[in-house]
Amino acid sequence: MENIINYFETIPSLHRGLILAGGIALFWLIESAVPFFKFQYNKWHHAGINIFFTLTTIVINFALAFILIKTADYVTQSQFGILNWLPSMNIVIYTIVGLLLMDFFGAYLAHFVEHKVKFLWRFHLIHHTDTYIDTTSGNRHHPGESVIRFAFTTLGVLVVGAPMWMVFMYQTLSVVATQLTHANICLPKKLDKVISYFLVSPDMHKIHHHYQLPYTDSNYGNIFSVWDRLFGTYLYLNREDIVYGVDTHMDPKEHNVLVNLLKIPFQKSRSARTE
User: Which residues does residue 224 pair with via DSSP β-bridges, in sequence order?
Assistant: First the structure.
C-alpha cells in the first residue's frame, strides 16, 4: 500500500495524461467492436466535440491546480478535516473512507446541486444534451461546469482533509470510472446489478442519461453508488428503455454543434423537463 501511496504522491503529469488517453482509446476500441447501442452517427465528429470539452477541462484544471495543491498542503499541515479528526485506522480503511468522502463532495454533491440550482444546470445541461453516449461523453463538460466541479473538489479536499496523494488517486479512479460508465458497452445484467450495490455500474449511470424525468434527476454518483442509495436518489430503468439526451434539446442542431453547445448556458431557458 505504501508503494501505491508513494506513486500517487508524485504521479507524473505524463502518467495522468496516459491514463486519460489510454482509457478513452481502450473503451473506444471495445465499444466499436461490441457496441450496446448501434448509433447512426458520425463517431469522429461526435468525438471531436467531446474531446474539445475534455481539453478545456484539462486546461482549466491545470490552471487552477495550485489551489488544490495549496488546500491539500493546508489540511495536511494543520491536521484539518474529517480524516484528521477520526481515530487512527488501518491505511486501507483510511484510503477507502477518504475516497468515499471525496466522491461525495467532488462528484455526488456537485452533481446533485447542478441539477437543483437552475443557474448551475444551464452549464451542466451540455453534458446531458448528448444523444450518442459513448466513452468520449464522460468529459463533455462546458468550461463553466469545469470550474464549478473544480470548486466542489477543492471543497471536498478541505472538508475531508485529504492529502495530495489521495486527491490524485481519487481523480485517477474518477476518470477511469467515468470512461467506463459512459462507454457504449454493457455488462451481463446480473453482474451489472451486483456491481451497482457498491460501485456505479454502466447501466446505473446510463439511466441518469435518460432524456426524461425522473430518471435524469437520479443516480448522481461517479465512483461509489452508496450515496445514491443512502439519500434515495437511486432509480432503476430497464436498459432497453433508455433514450439518451434531454427532452428540451433533442434537435441535432442544438446538441451536436459545438458553437451552440458553448452558448447554451447563456440562451433563454426552456420550459421545465417533463416527466
Answer: 199
Consecutive 10-residue runs of the chain (275 residues): their mean pLDDT? Answer: 87 90 94 91 94 96 95 97 95 97 98 97 97 96 97 97 97 96 95 96 97 97 97 96 95 93 88 47
Look-up of cell digits 463532495: 105
- Give SS3 for 224: strand
Residues with Cβ within 8 Å of 263's Cβ and at least 6 positions away in sequence, in order, are none
How crowded is residue 10: how many other Cβ atoms within 10 Å of its Cβ? 10
Respond yes or no on whether the N-terminal peptide bond of residue 214 is cis (omega within 30° of 0).
yes
d(CA 155, CA 153): 5
Q: pLDDT by residue (tens digit) across 142-178?
A: 999 999 999 999 999 999 999 999 999 999 999 999 9
Cβ–Cβ contacts within 10 Å for residue 48, how many? 12
| DSSP 8-state class, residue 234 | -
pLDDT of residue 271: 53
N- to C-terminal Cα separation, the chain? 47
C-alpha span between 233 and 129 (Å, rounded): 21
- Sort 208 into a burial class: Cβ within 10 Å, 0-12 / 13-18 / 19+: buried
Nearest to 234 by CA among 201, 257, 266: 201
User: Beta-carbon neighbour count of residue 28 at 10 Å?
Assistant: 18
Instruction: Give me the pLDDT at residue 81, please.
Output: 97
- In the block, residue with C-alpha cell 432524456: 211
> What does residue 249 show for φ and ψ, rounded to 5 degrees?
-140, 65
Is the pTM higher than 0.90? The answer reads yes
